[in-house]
Amino acid sequence: MLRRALQLAALSLLPLAVTAHAAVQQPAQILSGGMARDYILASPAGEAARPLPLVLVLHGHLGTAANALGQGRVPSPLSAWLPIVDREQVLVAALQGLKGRDDHTGWDDCRIDAVEDPGSDDVTFARDVVASLVQAGRADPHRVYVMGMSNGAMMALRLALEMKPAPAAVAAVSGTMAASSACTGPAPQVSVLLIDGTDDPIVPYAGGRVGLGRHKTGTVTGVTASRDWWLQADGLQGTPAIATTFPHLDPVDPTRATRYVWGPQAGPQVEVISVQNGGHVEPSLRFHYGWFYSRLVGTQNRDFESAEEAWSFFRTKRSR
Questions:
Q1: Other Cβ atoms within 10 Å of 202 Cβ, number
Q2: How many CB atoms within 10 Å of residue 26?
Q3: Are strands 215-221 and 207-212 parallel, antiparallel or unpaired?
């Protein structure tokens, strides 16, 4: 029943406006961990003859790489990356997750108690995609970033912990750190952006079990605890936060978004965008969810574009 409800709800996602872009999308495959793994590479139509910044995009549970880049009937708000690709001369690789025990796609994030995660070596997969594009002279090894939604957000945080070389920055939307974690070892200094709704019914803002209704698997820490973990890892404890409220654009929208920033713009830096009354959904100016989907996952903020905020956060960050 849950899966059917989510599938029906997904059909209510309609882009209210379509932004013209000339990004070139190409399906790609790479041998990783002894198996063929798929991804889609979006590149500028007039790609510069120099290594470009590379963003790995990770869909959520039940999602696909194609959906994340606007293909099919139900484009994700993550497809707002496409105009950025062409405008900013950026490569975006949307990775495809594998099916878990529930026969739905997802990622093997850090949650030990997430029994439906596919058990795949997704850290190696991400590393191999980055290495292949760096070796081809297309990607800048010092400007590698990751953005994920939900289960993809949790996987993005795993890549921040375990991918070698580490990404310069990651953005996690509607996903936080594992409470019972399979990830070990000291964290590198990675800049982290967290975007979360205070009324998220699937990934609780204060932490707890993940899921909808009776269908729950795995536990996470809350946004505050996840933020504090990265503040300590990045040596930013005690640094005053800068708080900025986003201009409210839709009087019917009951949510409000506030940005909190720790650390210098060049990084390491930790940023939290807290969406008061927001649900389990990417805030977006252009891609808005319908009423039925919103009943399941909560209210979508319409005051900013999540992909644009992620790029604004990423663009100044460099890894060592």
A1: 24
A2: 9
A3: antiparallel
User: Residue 64 and residue 58: Cα distance in Å, rounded?
Assistant: 9
What is the C-alpha to C-alpha distance for residues 248 and 302, in angstroms, rounded to an integer?
8
- pLDDT, tens digit (0-9, with 9 covering 90-100), for 261-320: 999 988 799 999 999 999 999 999 999 888 888 889 999 999 999 999 999 999 999 998
Give the H or E element holding residue 306.
helix 306-314
Compute the distance between CA of residue 2 and CA of residue 116 in angstroms, rounded to an integer.
15
> What are the φ and ψ backbone dihedral angles of 76, each rounded to 5 degrees?
-80, 155
Phi, psi of 114 (to 5 degrees): -90, 85
Say which DSSP state 318 is in: -
- State the Cα–Cα distance between residues 105 and 103, nearest whole angstrom: 7
**Which has the closest alpha carbon to 307: 75, 27, 50?**
75
pLDDT tens digits for range 16-34: 333 445 799 999 999 999 9
The Cα–Cα gap between 38 and 65 comes to: 9
Q: Is 102 helix (H, G, I), strand (E, B) or coil?
A: coil
Distance CA 31, CA 241 (A): 43
Q: For 70, left (φ over 0), alpha (ψ -120 to 50), or beta?
A: left
Task: Using the structure block, give the residue that is written with the tokens 């002894």.
Answer: 34
What is the longest distance spanned by two Cα atoms in the chain? 52
Q: pTM here?
A: 0.92
**What's the CA dihedral at 77, 78, 80, 81 to 10 degrees?**
180
Q: Which residues contact 164 (CB under 8 A, 6 or more apart)?
A: 127
Amino acid residing at 289: Y
